[in-house]
Design goal:
single chain, mainly alpha, Rna Polymerase Sigma Factor, Chain: A, 0% strand
Length: 180
């Protein structure tokens, strides 16, 4: 694996940019796909958002200053792209973002790309009911294993606020899963 600083340098140089970008995509596409997928839930939508994310990364690599890790910067782009996608989709469908999330979670069982069991389906339904920030924090902590400091850089929020959001999300998920 190439060092992050070297990769960024090669991404910014015209002679090495294409090969470096290919390496960047190969290295991060799976992690970013699943991060996006947990936000938008649908496979095809996730692929579209992932493609848009990499386009934005490619177009904006010159503005990357190295003040955070490269993947943190890309996670921020992916998160923003996914949230913008959901807002546009809910506007287009004429429903609230929370209603749309619940509809998407309920359709997961029929999704050929969803291979989860009943418990995973219930977890996704519980997540769909969370406020946006709690859902993001829970996904990043629980599924991606990110530290609060990393999430702070991605979501531009204090560590204390992130811990509180995670705690509230866990309580709400537990409550939802205890229903029925």
């Amino acid at each position: 694996m190439i060092a992050e600083e070297t990769l960024v340098k090669e991404l910014k140089e015209e002679a090495t940019q294409a090969k470096a970008f290919e390496l960047l995509v190969d290295t991060y596409k799976q992690r970013l796909y699943w991060h996006i997928r947990r936000i938008v839930l649908d496979h095809d939508d996730s692929d579209d958002v992932l493609q848009n994310t990499f386009i934005k990364v490619y177009r904006n690599i010159e503005s990357f200053k190295g003040e955070s890790k490269l993947y943190s910067w890309m996670y921020r782009i992916a998160t923003n792209e996914a949230l913008q996608f959901l807002k546009a989709k809910s506007r287009k469908l004429g429903v609230s973002a929370s209603d749309m999330q619940e509809q998407l979670a309920n359709k997961l069982k029929a999704d050929v790309y969803f291979d989860g069991n009943e418990i995973q389906l219930r977890l996704q339904q519980a997540l769909a009911r969370l406020p946006e920030k709690q859902k993001l924090v829970f996904n990043m902590k629980y599924f991606d294993g990110l530290k609060y400091e990393e999430m702070s850089g991605i979501l531009d929020t204090s560590v204390g606020a992130l811990k509180a959001s995670y705690h509230l999300a866990v309580k709400k998920i537990e409550s939802f899963l205890k229903e029925d």
